[in-house]
Design a protein that fits this description.
The chain has 270 residues and is an all-alpha fold. The chain contains twelve helices and no strands.
């Protein structure tokens, strides 16, 4: 469930933040854009941190509903994993805002490679500890990876001369952005809730069913996370910049090229 919540919290950030950030850069300059970056990051970090705390306190009834067939020992272990993994939600939101700022500045390398940090730490934990400590090394490595990703993205922004640490400010500066973010997040909840329901159903089946479900979705998930997310990250800043500058013909041309690319790549996969 924490992975699902991280996806729901971070998925809308790119689409909501990049156009407004580019608009601020175009109209108000680096200082105004930096203020938007800082306040967006600060607000999401604080609000989603509070949400994670509430979900941690409500973890017992949530897991009882999703994994009612677990034994008492397995249930207590899952509850511990669940509460620690919730730390990823505010960290992932912070990292997604900083990654979006880098993408808006056409710095693609760091946001593309940084997610591999968590995977590398997870594999290292598996290799170092095996199954001697249960899933705790993987859980802790996932949280450490999210924290390290934030550090790398912050360093990359600082190198670009555009880092602005998270801080709270006047609501009016981010009111429209947060409204759009909540709308897209709600849409993401409804569009991806099937995965959460499937996990709940699998948890009530024979032992190993949850693992079978997880590995059965790896291929489609890999394609979606690498191919479609990559295309989205590459074209959205260009679309936003052309729309802000009222370059309608260039925008139509870019949209046509992106659509043809998607068709050429996805049809053979089907």
């Amino acid at each position: 469930m924490p992975n699902y919540l991280v996806m729901v919290a971070t998925a809308p950030v790119l689409a909501v933040f990049v156009p407004r950030y580019l608009k601020e850069l175009e109209g108000g300059g680096a200082e105004t854009a930096g203020a938007l970056l800082a306040r967006t990051a600060g607000l999401l970090f604080v609000v989603l941190g509070a949400v994670a705390a509430v979900l941690a306190l409500a973890g017992l009834p949530i897991l009882q509903g999703l994994a009612s067939s677990f034994t008492a020992g397995k249930h207590d272990l899952a509850l511990g994993y669940y509460r620690v993994l919730l730390l990823q939600i505010p960290l992932a939101a912070l990292g997604s805002v900083w990654a979006a700022a880098l993408l808006a500045r056409k710095a693609y390398l760091a946001p593309t490679l940084v997610p591999g940090v968590t995977s590398l730490l997870t594999l290292t934990a598996l290799y170092a500890f095996g199954d001697t400590k249960g899933a705790w090394p993987v859980v802790l490595a996932s949280c450490a990876g999210a924290l390290l990703e934030c550090g790398v993205l912050a360093a990359c922004l600082a190198r670009e001369g555009s880092f602005a640490g998270p801080r709270l400010g006047r609501w009016a500066h981010v009111k429209g952005l947060i409204g759009d973010y909540l709308s897209l997040m709600l849409a993401q909840v409804f569009s991806s809730a099937g995965a959460l329901v499937s996990q709940g159903v699998a948890a009530g089946q024979a032992p190993g069913s949850l693992s079978v479900l997880a590995y059965g979705t790896r291929i489609s998930g890999f394609i979606e996370s690498t191919l479609f997310a990559g295309i989205n990250a590459a074209v959205l800043p260009r679309f936003s910049e052309q729309a802000i500058q009222r370059r309608d013909e260039a925008l139509k041309d870019s949209l046509g090229k992106a659509s043809r690319l998607i068709v050429r790549v996805t049809v053979p996969l089907v």
